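From: lab user (bench 3)
To: helpdesk
Subject: output format question, protein + adenosine-5'-diphosphate

Hello, I'm new to running complex predictions and I'm not sure whether the block I got back is the full result or only part of it. Here's what I submitted:
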Amino acid sequence: SSSDSVKVAVRVRPFNQREKNAGSKCVLSMNGSTTVITNPENNDKKTFSFDHSYWSHDSSREDENGVFVPDSSNSNYADQRRVFSDLGQGVLDNAWQGYNAALFAYGQTGAGKSYSMIGYGPNKGIVPITCEELFKAIEDNQDKTKQLQVSFSMLEIYNEQVRDLLVKTKPQAGGLKIRQNPQTGFYVEGLKQVPVRDYNEIEKLMEQGTVNRTTASTNMNATSSRSHMVITIRFAQVFKNADGQSNTRSSDINLVDLAGSERADSTGATGDRLKEGSAINQSLSTLGNVISALADLAMGKKKVLVPYRDSVLTKLLQSALGGNSRTIMIAALSPADINYDETLSTLRYADRAKKIQNKAVVNESPTD
Ligand code: ADP
Ligand code: MG
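Helpdesk reply: Thanks, we reran it on our side. This is the complete output you should expect:
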C-alpha cells in the first residue's frame, strides 16, 4: 500500500473565434510548473503551482489535415502527445502494475476538457491514445501464459440520472440504479461492460457513445455538454504464480469528462437548461465538497465527514477520490480576460485537489 497525492495538471487553450473577435487579452502565463493569472481590472497577480502546467495557447498551427502541430519556434507548446506521455502513460503503467487509475477533466464549458480527454478528429485526446497504446502493449506481450482481458463501459450522468451510453434505446425513466457492494463500493446496475479485443472495437464504442451523449448547447460553446461522462476500462491479467495457481491482477481505469463548472446563470441559460444546470451543480458542488473535505483530512483536521453519498458522481468516483486509485485531474483553462473569474475559480479548485491523499493498492487475488 502507498499513499499518493492526486496529481494535478492545468492546460490553457488557444483563443477561440469569439474571444478573438472580442479582442481578448490573455490573462495566463506559465513557466515550468508555475501558472500565473493576472486580474485584467487591476493587474493583480496570483501564482499557482501544479504537477504540470501545459501551455497550449499559441505557437501552434494547423497543418493540411487540420492537425494542430507545435510551431517549431516554440518548443514549449504542449500538444496532445505531450499530454498523453506525461499523464496517459502513467495511467497505463499503473494499470499494468494492478493499480486503479483515474483521470478527470474539470473546467468551464469551452475551456478544453473534451479536447484533452477525447479530442476532435485527428487531434486525438488522452483517452483514445491511452487505449491505442494499451492494445499495442498487449499485442507486444510475449508472455503467452498470461491472459490479458480488456472491457469498456461508458455512461453519462445527466440531471443526477445515469444513462448507459452504449445502449441506443430510450433510457428508462429515472435512469439506471446505483447499488452498493460492501466490498467494492458503488456501481451501476445493468451497465454494459463490453469485452474488447482491439483498439478498433473501443474506437467504435467511443464514437457510438459520443453520439449518444446528451448535449445542449449554451451560448458559451456550440459543442458543450451539460452532462458528466464516465468511461471505465477494466484491464485484467490472468497468470500462473510460483505455486502454479492462477492469479488475476486487475485495474479499473476511470476517465471522466465533467460537465462545465460555470454557474448556469453566467452562461445565459434559461428554462430547462437552467434546471439542468442546477442539477449538474448538485454533482459538481458535491464533488467540490468532497474535495474540500479530503483536503481538510489531509491537512490533519479531525472528524471530517466526506459527503460521497450526496451525489451520483461522487458515489461512482468514491475510490478515485481519497481511495484505492492513483488519480489525476486536468483542469482546462480559457486564456481570455472575459473568463477571468471562472478561470481563477478553476485554478483554486485545482489547487485544493492537489492536497487529496489516495491509498492505492495492487489488486491481485486468486482467479475465481
Ligand atoms: P469543453 O469540453 O471544456 O467544453 P472543448 O474541449 O470542446 O471544451 O473545447 C472548446 C473548443 O476549443 C473546441 O473547438 C476545441 O477544439 C478547442 N480547444 C480546446 N483545447 C484546445 C487545445 N489545447 N488546442 C487547440 N484547440 C483547443
Ligand atoms: Mg466538452
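A quick orientation on your result: Residues 113-114, 224-225 surround magnesium ion (ligand 2) (CB under 6 Å). Let us know if anything else is unclear.
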